[in-house]
Amino acid sequence: MAEPRWLTDEEAQAWRRFTTMRFQLDARLDRQLGNTISIQDYGVLASLSEEPNKSMRISELGERLGWETSRVSHQLTRMAKRGLVERRRCPNDGRGSLAVVTDAGQAAIEAAAPDHVASVRHLFIDLLTPEELRMISAVSQKVLGRLHDPADPTGS
């Protein structure tokens, strides 16, 4: 077995800073949303509410969020109990299911969005120059491409 390619000190520092930022940013945004909806609820509701029929196949929602099927299912179950979403049979495919935003879910995302966007601007967007923002977007797209590459031997 080949020796692992250990991270250099600079690489390790960059990775630690990135993961710390990611975790702390999610935690802060979750606290900002308060007790009404979680950051995970927000991701689901934002994804669904952007769709023309405010619905999406559950498998597609999981792909968009980067979640396993079981995680999507558990999240939707919790949200359905609170009246934010509902599941429906896919009209053109009896085997598939749709996640649909309810009126209460739409009201929740509309109420949360202004403060959430203000926090995203304050904690992230407004700190960056346009060039830094373009660079983060490009880097994110590159990493997402690797994460979704079916030929990647580390994927699952």
From TrEMBL:
<protein>
    <submittedName>
        <fullName>Transcriptional regulator, MarR family</fullName>
    </submittedName>
</protein>
<dbReference type="GO" id="GO:0006950">
    <property type="term" value="P:response to stress"/>
</dbReference>
<dbReference type="InterPro" id="IPR036390">
    <property type="entry name" value="WH_DNA-bd_sf"/>
</dbReference>
<dbReference type="Pfam" id="PF01047">
    <property type="entry name" value="MarR"/>
</dbReference>
<dbReference type="GO" id="GO:0003700">
    <property type="term" value="F:DNA-binding transcription factor activity"/>
</dbReference>
<feature type="domain" description="HTH marR-type">
    <location>
        <begin position="11"/>
        <end position="145"/>
    </location>
</feature>
<dbReference type="InterPro" id="IPR036388">
    <property type="entry name" value="WH-like_DNA-bd_sf"/>
</dbReference>
<dbReference type="InterPro" id="IPR000835">
    <property type="entry name" value="HTH_MarR-typ"/>
</dbReference>
<dbReference type="InterPro" id="IPR039422">
    <property type="entry name" value="MarR/SlyA-like"/>
</dbReference>
